[in-house]
Amino acid sequence: MFTSRTVAAISEIAQGRNIELAALLAVTEVESAGVIFWRVNGEELPAIRIEGHYFDRLLPSNKRAIARRKRLASPKDGA
Description:
By secondary structure, the chain is mainly alpha-helical. The protein has helices at residues 4-16, 21-32, 52-58, 61-69; strands at 37-40, 43-46. Helices cover 52% and strands 10% of the residues.
């Protein structure tokens, strides 16, 4: 079961993308087993992540810089 903070964040995303909240909660629950973040080397990281180097290649350059700053994308494999 998700914390109220997590449900609020998922709800905000669902509203912003016009997705039914129940559907997004269901997918998130199944894909994450209820664990949204993992603690890795003292840092909270999303439990589900696209490969950062692949994501980096898909982004337009103006969004790539933002994603790199947030450590969601990287030009290096495994970063």
